[in-house]
């Protein structure tokens, strides 16, 4: 946002990241949770615009409201918010992530509410398109419970890391959760490596998409710490809850008992699960303890701020 509030948004859209699973015995789920998440995000944005009420609350310092025909749903002046959305004060009132309120005013719920808010129509549209492309495919393969867990915990992980490093501005957006889904896709491919065809191409495609989106996060006013935190959370969760049986296990169940030689999972899958679980638990524990003790992550990592914004001759990074 123009006011300096980092929005979270994946920017690489519409890529087909599907690859081929060589067995067809897994159940295909009907995707309903991800569409509900999309509807919920849109509904929250409409409520935020209703609360914002630009015609009544705009003081005129940045110009007049945009799209006045929408009445109280009209947008803030573009000089204030170029993404066609509400004011910073409205986002803060609605539950945007703000370090001071989380730590000193005991409003930890903002770690969750911020992921349902968006800075503007452009921000919302970009994130919801990404959620549809990424989330529906995952929900069809793994069901709403596991995908819902990845989405929500990744959003929380992104909020925690964001709060540790961005403590002067507010932050909103669902892309921490979206990066979690991307991270889960990557770890799911790695842990279920033996059952896929075209896996090298799939791995390359995923790495390129993730790399481009993380690279775009170094632009100003984009909360790349939320992206990184969400990605790491989803990456670890994928090893834990997105395991598939190894190739041939389904068929081996129908063989005589003395002929069954295949176990459900391979040894390396269990090793990855254990390592990921330890790292995830340690990461969340350390992050939450540091956050609620008021620790500034930048004091312990002098270069980490470059992960979210790299100053150039064209822009500055004020946080």
UniProtKB/TrEMBL annotation:
Reactions the enzyme catalyzes: Cleaves type-1 transmembrane domains using a catalytic dyad composed of serine and histidine that are contributed by different transmembrane domains
Membrane topology (UniProt): Multi-pass membrane protein
Family matches, as InterPro entries: Peptidase_S54_rhomboid-like (IPR002610), Peptidase_S54_rhomboid_dom (IPR022764), Rhomboid-like_sf (IPR035952)
Peptidase S54 rhomboid domain: residues covered: 106-242
Keywords from the UniProt entry: Hydrolase, Membrane, Protease, Serine protease, Transmembrane, Transmembrane helix
UniProt signal peptide: none
Positions of transmembrane segments: 32-51, 115-136, 148-166, 172-193, 200-219, 225-243, 270-292
EC number from the UniProt entry: 3.4.21.105
Domain of life per record: Eukaryota
Enzyme class: hydrolase
Record's subcellular location: Membrane
One Pfam family cited in the UniProt record for this chain: Rhomboid
Cited function: Serine protease involved in intramembrane proteolysis.
Family as reported in the entry's similarity comment: Belongs to the peptidase S54 family.
Protein name: RHOMBOID-like protein
Annotated organism of origin: Hevea brasiliensis (Para rubber tree)
